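An instance noted here:
***
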Amino acid sequence: MTLKKLTLGLALTVAELTAQAQQTMSLTLAEAQQYAVEHNQSMRNADLEVKRSETERWKTLSTMLPQVKAGFDYQNMCGYEMHMGSGLMSINIPMDPNGNFNVTASLALTGAQIVGTMLQDIAIQMSDITRQQTEQTTRSNVKNVYTSILIMEETVVLLDSSLSNLERLAATSQASVNAGAAEQVDADKIQVQVASMRTSINTTRRSLWALRNSLLLQLGADVNTQLQLTTKVDDILNVSNATTLLSNSGFDITKNYNYQLLEQNEKLAKKQVTMAWMDFTPTLSAYYQYSKKVYFGEEGMNMTPPNMVGASISIPLLSSGSRAAGVKSAKISYQEALNSKQQAEDGLKVQYNQLCYDLASALESYDIQSRNLAVSKRVFDNVTEKYKYGRASSLEVTNASTDIISAQSNYIQAVMNVISAQTALENLLGM
């Protein structure tokens, strides 16, 4: 008895801890997208990449600013004395311990440093564009998974309703068999359809569970979080917005993130040409040094000047053609960047036309499948009602049951095709 109580107590404790660990999040689609932007790991990495680019820019810029360093050295000759002359003219000079403190400020400036700072500015812009593109992708992924969950939930409700009808028919059919008014084979056919419907429902529920886990991953939320999605499918599947999107004329390619990255890549390649030319420019440098020598004993001979300034210029003269080859190579890379940009521009225009076609086709299919689902449901209800009174066969019930499952599957695919096509077109347009 004690063991049973202990087991029950442990079970209740585990259940309580599990309930406490599972927090519930109620999210609209917009809230889910914003939560993902703030917590998704890919977004965090994109933000960090922008900060890293800014740090690298400052690192390059700092090489153009004065560099200051200080040093102190100590020397002890261990009692050694310097002997000068001989005989009566001999002089012993003690080499007392001494320390030397110095501060040096230097500045070196090259053309490559200036261009390098410009390159880092472009790198920051590219990182920021990539961050915006990652945010766009994150929002799109959340929208797709969020919508899939809603559709799957509606599917389960519809299939549960159909299953209830089939189970009632199966019970009625078996009762007729027991009364000798029907054959067992007809009842068996209905039972097979009941089993098939239950399998379809279980498969859908497993898919729904996987989708919820996928959404948690996209959100960057704890895996034990329970999600409540409050936006309706009809609010997301806005056919009028999709139609308006198709009616908009023109494609402003400059709003596309991929094209923006190509533009920055072109600028980067052009600056690389300038960077190659900087190998021909001189290097300017200047420094100031302050020194203070201190003797720890008698004052010795101090030949260290306290202040010193200097400047130099280094002019490259001969490199056996390596610098000229570097410039030529950079120009070739720049031309390649121009060609890639033009090719990508043409490809994006073709992709725009294709995505418009895909969205138009998806809208047409959605309209057809919506009507087909409504008709299939009416047919199924009609056939099951007739079967109750013996005016329809088990084969008709089987066909109607199969048709409604197929119609529901086609409807789900049609809805997802519309949302995916619309999202893809919006992403291409930079919306």
Summary: Strands lie at 24-27, 67-75, 81-84, 91-94, 98-109, 226-229, 283-295, 307-314. The longest helix spans residues 111-178. The mean pLDDT is 80. The chain is about 70% helix and 15% strand.
